[in-house]
Amino acid sequence: MSKKVRWRVLLILLVVVGTVAGYVVTGYQHAKKEWIGAGNPPLSLALKKGIKLGLDLRGGIHLVLQVNTADALKAERDDAIETLRNQAREKSFTLGDFEMTAPNAFAVNVSAQTDTTKLEEAVKRFLGDWTYNVVGGKWVFQLKETARRAAEENAVSQAIETIRNRVDEFGVAEPLIAREGVDRILVQLPGVDDPKRVKDLIKNTAFLELKLVESGPSDRTALLAASGGQVPPTLDLVEAKAEAGQRQDLYYLVRKSAVITGRDLKNARPSRTGQFGQMGVTFFLTAGGAEKFASATGANVGKQLAIILDNRVQSAPRINERISDQGVIQGSFTAEEANDLALVLRAGALPAGLTYLEERTVGPSLGADSIRNGITASVVGALLVFVAVVVYYRRAGWNAVIALLLNAILLAGAMALLGSTLTLPGIAGFILTIGMAVDSNVLIFERIREELRGGRAPKTAIENGFAKAFATIIDTHITIVISAIFLFQFGTGPVKGFAVTLVIGLLISVFTAVFVSHTIFDLEYGRRAHIDTVSI
Amino acid sequence: MELFRQTNIDFLRWKWWAIGASWLLILIGFFGIFVQKGLKFGIDFAGGTQIALRFAEKPDIERLRKLLDATNLGDTGIQRYEDVSKNEVLIRVQQQKKEGRDVTQDVLTALRTGLTTGSDPSRVDLNVQGRDALTGRLLAADPDHLAGGSGENPADHYARAAERIIARRTQLGIFRSPADVEGTPDVSQAVRDWVKANTNAGPFVVLSAENVGPQVGADLQKKALWAVALSTLGMLVYIAIRFRSLPFGVGAVIATLHDILITVGLLALLQREFNLVVVAALLTLVGYSVNDTVVVYDRIRENQRTPKKEPLESVINRSINQTLSRTVLTSGATMLVVLALFVLGGEVLNTFALTLIIGIITGTYSSIYVASPVVVIWKNFVDKRRAKRVPVKVVPPPPAEPTLPKAAPAAAEAAPRQKKKKNRR
Hints:
Mean pLDDT of chain A: 84
Distance between the termini of chain A: 22 Å
Strand order of the largest sheet of chain B: 2-3-1-6
CATH architecture of the largest domain in chain B: Up-down Bundle
Number of helices of chain B: 14
Helix content of chain B: 55-70%
Shape of chain A: elongated
Strand content of chain B: 5-15%
Oligomer: heterodimer
Largest interface: A-B, 84 and 89 residues
């Protein structure tokens, strides 16, 4: 064995041992997370857990949600309107009706009595994010582009944060929560198999407000009769949550400003609260929230306090005494619902509504079936290729088989080490790589045969064969990598897993076909000074 | 073993026949698309809902259809998977016009209530509900009497028990009755007894449920088109640079488009569904087809470097013959693995494998009969035009080429080629 060949063998061994060790170590790390018995997980488990499996193989839920950013803009708009109304009251100028023309635009009617200088002053001082035009008797306001973008941006990142909190509280191992595009959020929860519950949990806006009740519960017309059919400016009309067996269309008139909101919560937990031991949720307030709550309840003993969740009155208990730091949300909850409500209250409210754009659930049985099918197909396919190559190229065929086996081992190791995810199409990519990696060997062997036919000495033929095939091998690999790169734009789905597997596999196949295969030839024929024939 | 020992087939002689045959296949494909009234898009692209269920017993499709119709979800379809013995069924529901309905839940509830009679609906359905729900019920019932004890955390204990019971379901495929819980390892007898007495084993297991909204579908369609277009363009640029020749790049791209058109057309004709996985297969096919073409091109370039003067057609013919053995062998090997996938890979990978089977055949064919003829036809066309122009511009033949012993028209034909050669390293 010449020195050069010795180094090459050493390098190959190093790469193989390194990758295999990397695979086993990664496998142990993954296995440890799941291992519940005593001591270390067994090697067999570690070998199974080396490569991360995609949702389509291990089961789980894949969700794409859209943040309704218009909600965030509406909140900005409502704030602006509220500010103008307050200013009008404080600085005593009159304003006409407001018209809400778009989520990020509104108009106010200005009459002859309106003191426009005062209005302008208020706008300049408080509505810096808005531009306005005077059109006829109207001032038309539009949210500035930068402010609009900031509000939307905020809503999305806050929604991601909230969803992350909720998922963490729910206790999912290795969740993926990521932004996709401008206003979309991707949520992947491996192993979760109760889609309805998780979806409700994530989508629940969980906006909690406690407001003092002016009148109610009653039906709409009765409540508004006193104010001439209009909702008074300082009050809100809120629908009551319909309980089973109760009247459907009950409303409350409540004060517009909330005593406390979900932001004042410190903690929440499910508890048995009703007279008959029904489930409810007990919440605890922060110091600041407790102070506000204490003064409001102290001043309003005897009145009703509406507990409003997502714009529905859950219950409206009477205030019997000053309460400071805790309260109870009652309703006919099941234990699970109470649990989940407490969870979302702890995790915080969503800044905007969410819509499900895409939802894919894979049950554990399907994943198991897919793995079984995929592995069978891979083994059978690989064996067929091995047989074909050995029959066709005889001894050189075994070189190809070794190169291909190494290719498979290195690919598995590389995927474990890089932490890339194997999906069902990824398995197809795996097996396809084997089919295509054969191509490099075939190119080389055919070249060697040609050189032999051309009358070259076996050693020269081998050297020439490798040298001449090299450029072609690089070309063929680059072309497939180029086409695989365009698969990445499909995001995180199974198809991306396919692209990852294919690209890694092809890179490795350059190494195994060119470097490893060449070294094996050198090992076989290199030590002899002269060889007469090559088995190819 | 050798299949092809120094063949010498005049491939290009049949080029016009081949072009005719290609067009015929493409037209058949278009006819297929036309007959099916467009491609049959899967829910990835069309949007809608798709639910795969496994039943304990052979499902009564007519009954399922009636139950589905009662849900008022519009156009629905039920389809048995190919392997009838597995009792698996695929349900599709069209894209809903009104938002807000949880189609999956509606379908599952309708089927479950319609198919189970006489059992208490408030019980946990072992086949539909997951680990979390079962954990909750076990925790509430506490059959192992852990509450208040100082031992392990009851929540963890029952979560583990539930996990094992669900794993048992995965192993069995489906619980036929709660009594199947008996075989679950590492779960206390008390838990097993509680499960047997207090749960139901519903009629089906949900294998997968997918719901894709209209925006996502439209997005993916656009993305898929762009991916195929850009990767083809990427190939054109790579080959044009690598071979420093536009005709080669164009030849490879035409060959690739040829393969895509034929494959898509045949898929339509075979009524296969178009989804993301098929697009992945198409992109792989783009890579594969160009790969095949590049091997032939590489050989053409190499053969052109020899000082011997040889007409392009004969260089190409020689190159195709020299690489023929490799072409057939590689295609054969790839075909073997793809066939294994087609037969054994399961439902999801079936169309993927079929796409590649068609693609490998057309890809191999096109690298011989599309990519190279395009180069020949292009160059012949350009040469003819030059040959027409040259005598007009430079009569008599330029003295700059006195070494050429041939007559003027031949020189005019040879001149541009020699000029090209200088550009070509």
